[in-house]
TrEMBL record:
Cofactor(s) the protein requires to work: Zn(2+)
Organism: Senna tora
Lineage, uppermost ranks: Eukaryota, Viridiplantae, Streptophyta, Embryophyta, Tracheophyta
SMART domains: PKS_ER
UniProt protein name: Sorbitol dehydrogenase
A single GO molecular function term of this UniProt record: oxidoreductase activity, acting on the CH-OH group of donors, NAD or NADP as acceptor
Domain (Enoyl reductase (ER)): residue spans on this chain: 27-364
InterPro entries hit by this protein: ADH-like_C (IPR013149), ADH-like_N (IPR013154), ADH_Zn_CS (IPR002328), ER (IPR020843), GroES-like_sf (IPR011032), NAD(P)-bd_dom_sf (IPR036291), SDH-like (IPR045306)
Keywords associated with the record: Metal-binding, NAD, Oxidoreductase, Zinc
Top-rank taxon: Eukaryota
Entry similarity comment: Belongs to the zinc-containing alcohol dehydrogenase family.
Record flagged with keyword NAD: yes
Matching Pfam families: ADH_N (PF08240), ADH_zinc_N (PF00107)
Amino acid sequence: MGKGGMSREGHEEGKDVEENMAAWLVGINTLKIQPFKLPNLGPYDVRIRMKAVGICGSDVHFLKTMRLADFIVKEPMVIGHECAGIIEEIGSEVKNLVPGDRVAIEPGISCWRCYLCKEGRYNLCPEMKFFATPPVHGSLANQIVHPADLCFKLPENVSLEEGAMCEPLSVGVHACRRANIGPETNVLIMGAGPIGLVTMLAARAFGAPRIVIVDVNDYRLSVAKTLGADDIVKVSTNIQDVNEEVVEIHKAMGVGVDVSFDCVGFDKTMSTALGATRPGGKVCLVGLGHPEMTVPLTPAAVREVDVIGVFRYKNTWPLCIEFIRSGKIDVKPLITHRFGFSQKEVEEAFETSAGGGNAIKVMFNL
């Protein structure tokens, strides 16, 4: 199959297939709904009718700059990677799914041959083909073709929108696993954006007894408090305020910060996380706001503060679905805006997401 829904000619000869449409990124601040030809259905693939697709910060970044880190959009690309849908057709060897099943979709296809894949760290696969990461097309389309083993059946009490939210939630779950969050881990979270909030929800589900979340935005802090943060701290964007703000964070936490999650990735947020974390604790870098940072590593090193990197996720969908099914995590309040799939609504949805304000997660209903 065309990995990740790569645009390619071909459907079964003589079979009447409706024209598939997708949202293509064709230039800076330019999205167009255009035809998207699906690849042939391989024996282990499924064809999925998309029903819910969320907008991620990376999607907005590609729209604004046509690049993200070293990934550069050199030719038109279908956008979107947070998604769920309904199985319409299965390959000849697919045993675990049938047409009509509602599924959440893991968007990255690894090679399963390299040493990282064999070690189980497939999220680091150098050959990873990930939705809406050039040159791989994404999932904001009427239909896509994807490997069946990356499609996870949703229980009856989990909606398709919640299924799409398994993608951002997976980032938080993977971060909590990397940091070994448990019932004795007091957590600080830098950033109350979508990833900060899902990391907070995941940390609570993993048993963290106390969570303090930090942001510059009053609205997002109020959302964090509503979602269960034990305390919130408003900070500035001025790096000169770090020391004072660390004192405020310590007052809010009341106990030592065992693990800090930087869900922003700026000099200031990482410096604050390093300064606030107790000796022997951990700082987990989740947000990748800047490709390079200048931070005070030496003072953190002499306190033996470990710095842990996080990139995407691995083997998270079953646990995310179970957290949602059981009610341990409620992602519904994060979905603040909904749009249909028309040229006008696609443009409005991305404007809403890029504008910030009271938008947390913007979702398409196809």
